[in-house]
Amino acid sequence: MDEFFFLLLLAAGLKALQIEGPSGPLVVQLGGDVVLPCYTQDPVPLEGLRVEWRSDSDSEESLVNVFQQNEIRSDLQSPAFRGRVNFFPDQISRGNFSIFLSNIRTEDAGVYSCKVYTDQDSSETTVEIKDIERFVVIGAHHPAVASVGEEVILNCSVDSHIPIHLLEEVTWTKHPDILVLLFQENETLSEASSDRYQGRAEFFSSEIPRGNFSLRLKDVRLEDTGEFICAAHAADLSAQTTVLIQQMGFSSLQKCILVLCFIASSLAFGLGIPVSILLWKEATTRRVLAMYLLQAFCPNLCMFIGFVLWSKEGLLNEVVVCAAVIFARPLILMKTAPYLNTLPERLVKEVKRLGFPLHCIIIMMAVFSVEFAHYEEGTFGLFESSTMLITIALLSVGAVVSAKYACRTFSFLCLVLCNIDLLIMSLHSESTESPAMVTATSSFVVGMVLLFSLQRHVFQLKPFTRLHIGLLSAVVAVACIFLTACSVFVGIYLGNFVNTWKFQFTAGIYIILWVALVLVVRRQHKNNKDRFCAKWRGLGYMCCAVLISISILANGLLYVYYIKDNMKSKDSSGYLAVMALLHIVPPGSLFVHPRKIPKIPHFILYMFGASGLSIVTSLTLATELILKGGTGGQTLPEMHVIILPFESLYIVVWLCLQIHDFWMRKKDRIKRNFEDGEEAEPQAAAEGTELETPLTKTPKP
């Protein structure tokens, strides 16, 4: 009796084997994967353990998979499940007997039983696959082949139990993430396509109700080489397929571009050798001058045509900006040429005065045309763009006219205002600091006006006529208008009228400073006794020159700060390259051709500009075209990121040489002024010798 009671207590202390499964039927996707749960809460010893998975999905029961004798017996599987079903081996000892079923088929629907046997007990549970949803995207099995300029069809069909009009979206993208075409909410949204595929990609509308989302790609380009992904989404289901366009050969147009690149580099290098010899010998015959001009114009003409042809393949901003830089380059080459003074006198005069302003304006209008094109995309309004266009056009005309009549300071200030206009326009839709940007840049403009006025009319004793007052007052007025517009913007668009007084106060300060300077200078010119002696005028002149240089540098750093800090949707590196060049060119309008520059640096610089820049440009375009044909994507940065820094370097070195020339010719005169401390009458302006005019006039012998 005691032994029987002990056995009852022992049996009561043992837990029965209890296998658990899912709480309800499973819904799976055709072609997808699923885990069929089967587990116990307590670990089970592997010795004597046997797990059987069976299915009644067919007319007779099939063995799905078996675990016994501490191993998985895949050899006992039914052929229908062989290679598609697996246990989780490292989880079996912990009581997890679930299986992983891959590549779901229609015939997999049904009830699955999980039976677990141990030496002491056995238990089972069932799992039902109730519905198998069809959601499969099928593409082409072979790569598509097309020649450049032709049309190609990329196959993609959606096989699903879900009606087509209930699909959330179907997208075609070019690897990695360039949107080619979008079907969303039962509508094709062509406007959502990337710029490079606008007007070139379309669905077969009549085939969409049948699930056919094949893509017709017209006017195939080299950049289309590579992978295209067709992806469909509906509720929590998604599927995709990949279609490949194989590498294509070059079209006749692209072959023409390569030929032009080869011709340009050959001309630049071939003419560079004899031209360098003739320049070193300072030859100036008519035949030699013709060779000089051929070197300056022909390679750049070839590259300009090449970039115009590249417009079908390249990005809008790189094509327009690079073409404008190449088109304007001969102006700078002639302006900086050692042989300039041997050309016809009238041509020499126009190049000296208008070379830098025209060069800057051509590039500026190209950049503006790209920005203006964005108004359709909502980044900038048509009214605002038109206002900016009128402003830049007026300032450009002012810069050219003032340079034509030797008002170089006013020409420089007009170009600076154009740059500020472009910067505000480019960052208008992205910057939250537009008011602060307008205040900072307008302060720079007004500060430059004050410094130039002091340098020219106080320390150089140049006449301060009504014309000078009117022109410089116009510049100050533009700066104040910028501040007023900013005040209106903050008050109306941002709904913040509290802080608008800051802009009005700043504009008032500008006006007070300018009026005070005008009164002081006019009084000084009327009363000769108030004039400074030569010693103090020399010191004041140099201080103004240093402050002007510092201001230009500080303004450039300000541009960099606002572009890097605020530019998000655009490529900041590309825009930095453009704005750096546009910031460097205007100071060149303060100079004309110098009288004396060291021969060797001048010779090296000009040959770099005449031959080196053309070779860099041609190699960049040819390399981009060839690599693009192999990868189908953009392999180099935007080309103006490569080309424009070399252009900027050329102009910076030229400005350094002119500053060197100015300093070498002025240091002796300044030294004499300090040593003698005698009054000297201002020297008449000699064209092309310095920023504006010399300090003093040397008495005639």
UniProtKB/TrEMBL annotation:
<feature type="transmembrane region" description="Helical">
    <location>
        <begin position="639"/>
        <end position="663"/>
    </location>
</feature>
<keyword id="KW-0325">Glycoprotein</keyword>
<keyword id="KW-1015">Disulfide bond</keyword>
<dbReference type="Pfam" id="PF07686">
    <property type="entry name" value="V-set"/>
</dbReference>
<keyword id="KW-0812">Transmembrane</keyword>
<feature type="region of interest" description="Disordered">
    <location>
        <begin position="675"/>
        <end position="701"/>
    </location>
</feature>
<keyword id="KW-1003">Cell membrane</keyword>
<dbReference type="InterPro" id="IPR013783">
    <property type="entry name" value="Ig-like_fold"/>
</dbReference>
<dbReference type="GO" id="GO:0009897">
    <property type="term" value="C:external side of plasma membrane"/>
</dbReference>
<dbReference type="InterPro" id="IPR003599">
    <property type="entry name" value="Ig_sub"/>
</dbReference>
<feature type="transmembrane region" description="Helical">
    <location>
        <begin position="435"/>
        <end position="455"/>
    </location>
</feature>
<feature type="transmembrane region" description="Helical">
    <location>
        <begin position="316"/>
        <end position="333"/>
    </location>
</feature>
<dbReference type="GO" id="GO:0042102">
    <property type="term" value="P:positive regulation of T cell proliferation"/>
</dbReference>
<feature type="transmembrane region" description="Helical">
    <location>
        <begin position="501"/>
        <end position="521"/>
    </location>
</feature>
<feature type="transmembrane region" description="Helical">
    <location>
        <begin position="381"/>
        <end position="403"/>
    </location>
</feature>
<dbReference type="InterPro" id="IPR013106">
    <property type="entry name" value="Ig_V-set"/>
</dbReference>
<dbReference type="GO" id="GO:0007166">
    <property type="term" value="P:cell surface receptor signaling pathway"/>
</dbReference>
<feature type="transmembrane region" description="Helical">
    <location>
        <begin position="541"/>
        <end position="562"/>
    </location>
</feature>
<feature type="transmembrane region" description="Helical">
    <location>
        <begin position="354"/>
        <end position="375"/>
    </location>
</feature>
<keyword id="KW-0732">Signal</keyword>
<keyword id="KW-1133">Transmembrane helix</keyword>
<feature type="transmembrane region" description="Helical">
    <location>
        <begin position="467"/>
        <end position="495"/>
    </location>
</feature>
<feature type="transmembrane region" description="Helical">
    <location>
        <begin position="604"/>
        <end position="627"/>
    </location>
</feature>
<dbReference type="GO" id="GO:0031295">
    <property type="term" value="P:T cell costimulation"/>
</dbReference>
<dbReference type="InterPro" id="IPR036179">
    <property type="entry name" value="Ig-like_dom_sf"/>
</dbReference>
<feature type="transmembrane region" description="Helical">
    <location>
        <begin position="410"/>
        <end position="429"/>
    </location>
</feature>
<dbReference type="GO" id="GO:0071222">
    <property type="term" value="P:cellular response to lipopolysaccharide"/>
</dbReference>
<feature type="transmembrane region" description="Helical">
    <location>
        <begin position="574"/>
        <end position="592"/>
    </location>
</feature>
<keyword id="KW-0472">Membrane</keyword>
<keyword id="KW-0675">Receptor</keyword>
<dbReference type="GO" id="GO:0006955">
    <property type="term" value="P:immune response"/>
</dbReference>
<dbReference type="InterPro" id="IPR007110">
    <property type="entry name" value="Ig-like_dom"/>
</dbReference>
<feature type="domain" description="Ig-like">
    <location>
        <begin position="31"/>
        <end position="130"/>
    </location>
</feature>
<protein>
    <submittedName>
        <fullName>Uncharacterized LOC103038104</fullName>
    </submittedName>
</protein>
<keyword id="KW-0393">Immunoglobulin domain</keyword>
<dbReference type="InterPro" id="IPR051713">
    <property type="entry name" value="T-cell_Activation_Regulation"/>
</dbReference>
<feature type="signal peptide">
    <location>
        <begin position="1"/>
        <end position="16"/>
    </location>
</feature>
<feature type="domain" description="Ig-like">
    <location>
        <begin position="133"/>
        <end position="246"/>
    </location>
</feature>
<dbReference type="GO" id="GO:0042130">
    <property type="term" value="P:negative regulation of T cell proliferation"/>
</dbReference>
<feature type="transmembrane region" description="Helical">
    <location>
        <begin position="257"/>
        <end position="280"/>
    </location>
</feature>
<feature type="transmembrane region" description="Helical">
    <location>
        <begin position="292"/>
        <end position="310"/>
    </location>
</feature>
